[in-house]
Design a protein that fits this description.
Blueprint: H1 2-25, H2 36-48, H3 51-55, E1 59-64, E2 68-73, E3 78-83, E4 86-91, E5 97-101, E6 104-105, H4 112-130, E7 140-145, E8 153-159, E9 169-174, E10 180-186, E11 195-204, E12 210-217, E13 221-230
Length: 245
């Protein structure tokens, strides 16, 4: 009995210590004050990153940290999402899906876990790739933050709805040309608020679309690899339309 109490006491101390550590390490989220000036700043950022070309984008493919692989038909908003021995074709508007495991199609009555996993991967991984182009998504608000440690301008984007983690917020740090240097995050999945992640290794794709390939921070580093865009699946290095199954 004494041993059990001792173990329980140790666990309690650890929990309290972790709670204190999180509170000390966390940074308060800036106050949200949506304004037309913030919308204008967001528009300037989008123009810097090639929004006209992004709006007319047809096809895109990429890999997320070498584990999740995507082909996206943007006008139709459907994606092929592959990981391990799984492939899912997902309609991103309706969430209708087909799935294959080891090249064998999964019966529709068993599709739920594959569809849900693919949707969560998409929401997370696509955001890491092209979050700047989502600052005017439905359910978002934009606010100016006057003081930022990195860059010259601060743009707070709050997501009140959408995706799988509504309520998240990101403070973009922008350089003098309104290109992102990085952002601070207040997200449900990470208990410490205000973690900074740099957006680095920018590439310019067709039409002037700018995409950062590396995310670097004190607690995580992520890579976006094999990024391609095009008007045909051959432009992506594919032999044909992956959605014609």
């Amino acid at each position: 009995m004494k041993f059990i109490k001792w173990v329980a006491g140790i666990i309690l101390v650890v929990i309290i210590a972790l709670f204190i550590l999180i509170k000390v390490a966390s940074e308060d989220r800036p106050e949200s004050n949506p304004s037309s000036e913030a919308d204008e700043m967001a528009t300037q950022m989008l123009n810097t990153l090639g929004k006209p070309a992004w709006d007319s984008l047809k096809l895109m493919s990429w890999s997320f940290i070498g584990q999740h692989h995507y082909v996206w038909n943007k006008p139709d908003n459907i994606a092929e999402i592959r990981w391990d021995d799984i492939k899912v074709i997902l309609n991103l508007n309706t969430l209708e899906a087909r799935a294959w495991k080891n090249d064998e199609e999964v019966p529709q009555k068993e599709i739920t876990k594959y569809r849900d996993a693919a949707w969560e991967y998409w929401c997370n991984d696509s955001f890491w790739l092209f979050a700047p182009f989502k600052v005017f998504d439905p359910g978002t608000t934009r606010s100016i933050v006057t003081e930022v440690e990195h860059g010259k301008y601060g743009l707070l984007v709050s997501y009140e709805s959408g995706g799988v983690t509504p309520g998240d917020a990101y403070l973009w740090h922008l350089d003098e040309n309104y290109r992102p240097v990085g952002y601070k995050m207040w997200v449900k999945i990470i208990p410490v608020g205000g973690i900074y992640v740099g957006w680095e290794d920018w590439v310019i794709l067709g039409g002037g679309i700018q995409i950062a390939q590396q995310r670097k921070g004190s607690v995580l580093s992520l890579s976006m690899d094999n990024i391609r865009i095009g008007n045909s699946y051959e432009d992506l290095g594919l032999s044909g339309d992956p959605f014609l199954q």
